[in-house]
Design goal:
Oligomer: single chain
CATH topology: Pnp Oxidase, Chain A
Structural class: alpha+beta
Distance between the termini: 18 Å
CATH class: Mainly Beta
Bound molecules: flavin mononucleotide
Number of strands: 9
Mean pLDDT: 98
CATH superfamily: Electron Transport, Fmn-binding Protein, Chain A
Strand order of the largest sheet: 2-1-5-8-9-4-3
CATH architecture: Roll
């Protein structure tokens, strides 16, 4: 679901939020709770919303929404209204923003954030390949508070 179908990472309220496409991330268990991990490069506008808000969502869509996700992953909320451009409808869900058309939604509470460290890379090629020219990622770990799935 994460790497192939991609997801929208969103934080804020429907009146003031930002969203971006992500295809990297992980789900698991840490600190006694189910967790969702994602990585956000420091130049993303969405990062400001993740910093300002306690909650975020990860929304997964049916394959027909790939063009909408492509748009949200190649344009910045600094320059356009992604919902208006794609037809995606932001909705308030458990205190954060999700999208009405999503098939599956995770609601997460931020528990940890930290920059990835260049010295942490075991293989210098990995660092060079992914951060040689692009800004570093900041990692977020959220506790999964709720999971919603549309059945039809
Ligand atoms: C398929 C796909 C996956 C992406 N995955 C990530 C990701 O995991 N982390 C990240 O920081 N950016 C990722 N991006 C890039 C952001 O979605 C893109 O830079 C976006 O325009 C940022 O929007 P913003 O400035 O409104 O936050 C991805 C883009 C695409 C198309």
């Amino acid at each position: 679901m994460i790497g192939k179908s991609w997801y929208l990472l969103t934080s804020g309220t429907p009146e003031d939020y930002n969203t971006m496409t992500a295809s990297w991330g992980a789900m698991g268990e840490i600190w006694g709770a189910p967790s969702f991990h994602c990585v956000v490069r420091t130049n993303r506008y969405t990062l400001q919303y993740l910093d300002r808000n306690e909650l975020f969502s990860a929304c997964f869509f049916d394959p027909g929404y790939k063009p909408a996700l492509q748009f949200c992953g190649t344009h910045s909320g600094r320059d356009c209204d992604k919902a208006k451009q794609t037809g995606l409808r932001p909705v308030l869900l458990d205190g954060t923003t999700a999208f009405a058309q999503a098939r599956r939604v995770l609601i997460c509470r931020k528990r940890y954030t930290a920059m990835m460290q260049p010295e942490g890379f075991i293989e210098p090629e990995t660092y060079e390949r992914w951060y040689g020219t692009d800004p570093m990622h900041r990692e977020f770990v959220g506790e999964v508070l709720a999971y919603y799935e549309k059945l039809h």
